[in-house]
Write a structure and sequence with these properties.
Elements: E1 9-18, E2 21-31, E3 36-40, H1 47-54, E4 62-67, H2 72-80, E5 83-86, H3 98-108, H4 113-126, H5 142-153, E6 160-164, H6 172-187, E7 191-196, H7 199-205, E8 208-213, E9 216-221, H8 223-230, E10 234-239, E11 256-260, E12 263-268, H9 271-280, E13 287-292, H10 295-303
Parallel strand pairs: 3-7, 3-8, 5-6, 6-7
Antiparallel strand pairs: 1-2, 1-4, 8-9, 10-12, 10-13, 11-12
Helix pairs in contact: 3-4, 5-6, 8-10
């Protein structure tokens, strides 16, 4: 981790409690200028609670937190003026047009009408909404609304952009377009903090990330570092008829074996060699697949496969 003087966000022992429930249990983190930093975790892990404290809309219960070198408990308004925030749910004014949403929001920051007009035109182009600029928000698709919400968050030229589950509910095309817009922002020097439970999104967007579970950070690093630390180079998936897979039959063929209802996952450095060994033992899976380990393998190993509501 970097030191707090190098960090746009620095936390030490950061905690958030709601009554008897500890949502965030004393985490340490640093977010460096210009990077895309991710919070990855299942529902209820504490990601959104942490983001709300960083956004200065929820007071911390314990620990230390600085954002842009300031204390949120004392300098909340000053910090919020330099942040961009994209909430989980779009909260646009649906009866206003695309351009009017940007104009109204810009005025909240005390920006001049001329500045807001020029900035709105720039952001409408950035969000690829030029042909819908005078359309009411209510008529837009989900992907368009999401792009507008991101465009609106940039009206004050923020140094730090917070995005809470930015692509939830979007189709693949809309997600990839959104990733492209966020990558361009990062190239322009905007620091991004993203929460997500999509593994591919974390791998696409994040230079570094933390995996949270039950209010704690259970791993930290780049996607490649996390895969190297917590998984193997490859995974061999052996699919069997339901209930016929036998973990003991592949004993010794992999560093770790995971048993699922219809298949065995063999975590190994060489999937093809492990598959050859499987065949030498006379095993005949319905199908087999050798693939690279992914962040999803890391995530499931660290947080488990049990559904969290």
């Amino acid at each position: 981790m970097g030191t707090s003087t190098e960090s746009l966000v620095s936390a030490r022992g950061l905690a958030k409690r709601f009554g008897d429930f500890d949502a965030v249990r004393g985490i340490d983190l640093d977010v460096r200028p210009g990077e895309a930093f991710g919070f990855l975790g299942p529902n209820g892990a504490g990601k959104s609670s942490t983001m709300r404290m960083i956004a200065c809309v929820s007071p911390r219960t314990g620990g230390e937190l600085t954002v842009l070198g300031m204390d949120p408990s004392r300098d909340g308004p000053a910090i919020r003026g330099r942040l961009g925030v994209v909430p989980q749910q779009d909260n646009l004014d649906t009866e206003l047009t695309v351009r009017e949403n940007l104009h109204v929001y810009g005025r909240y920051f005390g920006l001049s009408k001329a500045h807001v007009r020029a900035k709105a035109t720039e952001l409408i182009e950035f969000a690829q909404l030029a042909d819908r600029s005078d359309a009411e928000v209510e008529t837009l698709s989900g992907g368009m609304k999401r792009r507008l919400t991101i465009a609106r968050s940039l009206i004050n030229d923020p140094e730090l952009l917070l995005l809470d589950e930015p692509t939830t509910g979007l189709d693949p095309q809309a997600r990839h377009l959104l990733w492209d817009r966020l990558f361009r922002l990062k190239q322009q020097g905007v620091t991004l903090i993203v929460t997500t439970h999509y593994m591919d999104e974390a791998e696409q967007l994040c230079d570094r990330l933390v995996v949270m579970d039950a209010g704690r950070i259970v791993a930290e690093g780049s996607p490649a570092e996390l895969i190297a630390q917590h998984s193997t180079r490859e995974v061999l998936e052996l699919r069997f008829a339901a209930g016929t897979q036998d973990e003991q039959a592949v004993e010794g063929l992999a560093e770790r074996v995971e048993v699922l209802p219809d298949r065995l996952l063999l975590y190994t450095t060489d999937g093809e060699a492990s598959l050859a060994a499987v065949h030498r033992r006379g095993l005949t899976p319905v199908s087999s697949l050798v693939r690279r380990s992914t962040l999803e393998d890391v995530f499931l190993r660290l947080t488990g496969r049990t559904l969290v509501d």
